[in-house]
Design goal:
Elements (H helix, E strand, L loop, with lengths): L2 E5 L2 E4 L4 E8 L7 E7 L6 E6 L6 E3 L7 E6 L4 E6 L8 E9 L4 E4 L3 E6 L1
Parallel strand pairs: 2-11
Antiparallel strand pairs: 1-3, 3-8, 4-5, 4-9, 5-6, 7-8, 9-10, 9-11
């Protein structure tokens, strides 16, 4: 069973930066497609970014391109999301995800709150 624990959320002002981190345990981290999603109040969970096992392929939502950067460290079983130039519309609960291509299952963390004030 894969367990994911996020950290790094908080309350910041527009234009500030935050770095979210997610540490995984209980599985073979290097085999997973790792990602970040977010869910704002009253909205569906949406994709933010993901990164393949090698870090060679990264996808991100248009809304965060040029501002957010995803990275991973397979030696430490961590995936980070560096968020720059934050906007009030980035306010949401951010969730770390791990997709196993072997069992074709997605695992989720408990989420970390990011609040951006204007």
């Amino acid at each position: 069973q894969v367990q994911l624990v996020e950290s790094g959320g908080g309350l910041v002002q527009a234009g500030d930066s935050l770095r979210l981190s997610c540490v995984a345990s209980g599985g073979t981290f290097s085999r997973y497609l790792m990602g970040w999603y977010r869910q704002a109040p009253g909205k569906d969970r949406e994709f933010v970014a993901n990164i393949d096992w090698s870090g060679g392929r990264i996808d991100s939502a248009n809304s965060v391109k040029g501002r957010f950067t995803i990275s991973r460290d397979n030696a430490k079983n961590t995936v980070d999301l560096q968020m720059n130039s934050l906007k009030p519309e980035d306010t949401a609960i951010y969730y770390c995800s791990a997709f196993s291509p072997v069992v074709r299952r997605t695992y989720w963390g408990q989420g970390t709150q990011v609040t951006v004030s204007s």
